[in-house]
C-alpha cells in the first residue's frame, strides 16, 4: 500500500521494523547487511496480489447488481472513506508539486480501475488480468538497467502469453482494448505510487489520492447505477471489494515500493495472472488447463528470479558501502 519531500531526491524514505519512516539513506543503496529485508517487500506485494485478485472476483459477482462503473465507484468511494477515517491526513503544508503527485496518482488509480472493470465486464477475469499485466512488464523492460531483469521480464512475458492459451483473437476486441489501456494506467500507478510513498508520511498520500480518484469515478457510477448504489446489501459487498481490492493491497504495495525498485516490483506484478486464475477457479468456477499450469509456473519462476537478482544486487551494494 509517505513525508513531505520537495521535488528533489537527496534522500529516500525507508520503513524500519518499528514502522517509523526514517529519512537519510541514499535512494537505491541498502544499508550494509540489510539485503535480506528485500524479502519483506516481496511478501507485501504477494499478499497485495492475493487480496486484489480475490477482491476482483467478488467484484465480478457484484457487477449484475451495480454495473461495472457502479462497482468502481463503490470500491473507490468506500475505500476512500476507510482510509481517510484511519489516516486522517493533513491537507496543509504540502507543495504544489506534492499535490500534483496526488492528482496524478489518483487519476492513475481511478483510470486503472474504470478501464479494468470495463474489461472484466466483457472478457474472462484471467484474460483481462493477463492483458493488463503487460503494462507493468513493459515498464520493467523500459525502466530496468540490468540485463538480468530484462531476461526475467522476457520469461514472465512468455508465461503471460502462454497463459492466454492463444485465444486472445477470440476475445471481445473492446474488452481486450480496455484491458490493455488498464495496463498502461497500471504502469503509471506504479510510478506515482512510488513517488507518493516518498513524499507523504505513512499512508496519507494514498488516502488523499484515493479520495481524488473516488471523486473522478462518482459521476460515472451514479450515471450507470443510480439508486442501486444505495441498496444495503450492495453497499456491504462493495465494502468487501473496497477492503480487498483497494485498501489492503494499495497500502501493502505503497509500503513495498518504498524499499523495492520499481522494475523489480513491475516484474512481480506478473504474478497477478496466476493469482487471478486461482481466484477465477475458486470463486468463479473457471477451470485451469495443463497449459495454464505451465504458464503459471513460468511466471512464478520469472518473479522468483527477479527477486533473487535484486537480493544479489543489494548484497553487492551493501558490501561496497561497507
Q: How would you explain this protein's 3D organization?
A:
There is one protein chain. With 322 residues, the chain is mainly α. It has one domain (37-321). The chain is built from eleven helices and two strands. It has a two-stranded antiparallel ribbon with strand order 1-2. Helix 1 crosses helix 2 (96-120) and helix 2 (96-120) crosses helix 7 (204-225). The longest helix has 49 residues, at 39-87. Residues 1-36 have low confidence and may be disordered.
Low-confidence runs (pLDDT<50, min 5 residues)? 1-36
The total number of structural domains is 1
- Gross morphology is globular
SSE sequence, one letter per element = EEHHHHHHHHHHH
Which structural category do the helix and sheet elements fall into?
Answer: mainly alpha
The strand line-up of the biggest sheet is 1-2
Total number of strands:
2
Total helices: the number is 11
Q: How can the largest sheet be summarized?
A: 2 strands, antiparallel
Radius of gyration: 19 Å
Distance between the termini: 31 Å
| Average pLDDT metric | 77
Q: Give the fraction of residues assigned to helices.
A: over 70%
The fraction of residues assigned to DSSP E strands is under 5%
Topology:
Blueprint: E1 12-15, E2 21-25, H1 39-87, H2 96-120, H3 125-132, H4 134-143, H5 147-163, H6 173-199, H7 204-225, H8 232-257, H9 262-268, H10 272-283, H11 290-321
Antiparallel strand pairs: 1-2
Helix pairs in contact: 1-2, 1-7, 1-8, 1-10, 2-6, 2-7, 3-6, 3-10, 4-5, 4-6, 4-9, 5-11, 6-8
Amino acid at each position: 500500500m509517505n513525508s513531505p519531500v520537495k521535488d528533489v531526491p537527496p534522500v529516500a524514505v525507508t520503513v524500519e521494523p518499528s514502522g517509523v519512516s526514517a529519512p537519510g539513506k541514499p535512494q537505491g543503496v541498502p544499508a550494509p547487511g540489510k539485503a535480506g529485508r528485500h524479502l519483506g517487500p516481496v511478501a507485501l506485494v504477494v499478499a497485495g496480489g492475493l487480496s486484489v485478485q480475490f477482491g476482483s472476483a467478488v467484484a465480478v459477482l457484484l457487477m449484475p447488481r451495480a454495473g461495472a462503473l457502479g462497482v468502481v465507484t463503490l470500491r473507490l468511494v468506500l475505500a476512500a472513506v476507510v482510509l481517510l477515517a484511519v489516516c486522517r491526513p493533513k491537507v496543509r503544508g504540502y507543495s504544489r508539486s506534492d499535490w500534483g503527485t496526488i492528482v496524478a496518482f489518483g487519476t492513475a488509480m481511478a483510470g486503472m480501475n474504470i478501464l479494468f472493470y470495463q474489461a472484466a465486464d466483457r472478457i474472462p477475469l484471467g484474460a483481462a488480468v493477463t492483458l493488463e499485466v503487460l503494462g507493468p512488464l513493459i515498464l520493467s523492460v523500459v525502466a530496468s538497467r540490468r540485463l538480468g531483469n530484462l531476461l526475467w521480464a522476457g520469461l514472465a512475458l512468455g508465461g503471460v502469453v502462454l497463459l492466454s492459451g492463444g485465444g486472445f483473437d477470440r476475445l471481445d476486441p473492446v474488452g481486450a482494448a480496455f484491458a490493455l489501456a488498464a495496463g498502461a494506467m497500471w504502469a503509471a500507478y506504479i510510478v506515482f505510487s512510488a513517488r507518493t510513498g516518498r513524499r507523504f508520511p505513512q499512508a496519507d498520500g494514498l488516502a488523499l489520492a484515493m479520495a481524488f480518484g473516488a471523486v473522478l469515478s462518482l459521476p460515472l457510477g451514479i450515471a450507470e447505477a443510480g439508486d442501486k448504489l444505495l441498496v444495503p446489501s450492495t453497499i456491504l459487498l462493495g465494502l468487501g471489494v473496497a477492503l480487498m481490492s483497494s485498501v489492503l493491497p494499495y497500502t501493502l504495495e505503497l509500503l513495498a515500493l518504498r524499499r523495492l525498485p520499481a522494475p523489480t516490483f513491475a516484474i512481480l506484478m506478473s504474478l497477478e495472472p496466476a493469482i487471478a486464475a486461482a481466484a477465477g477457479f475458486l470463486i468463479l468456477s473457471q477451470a485451469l488447463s495443463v497449459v495454464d499450469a505451465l504458464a503459471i509456473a513460468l511466471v512464478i519462476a520469472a518473479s522468483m528470479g527477479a527477486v533473487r537478482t535484486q537480493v544479489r544486487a543489494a548484497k553487492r551494494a551493501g558490501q561496497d558501502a561497507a
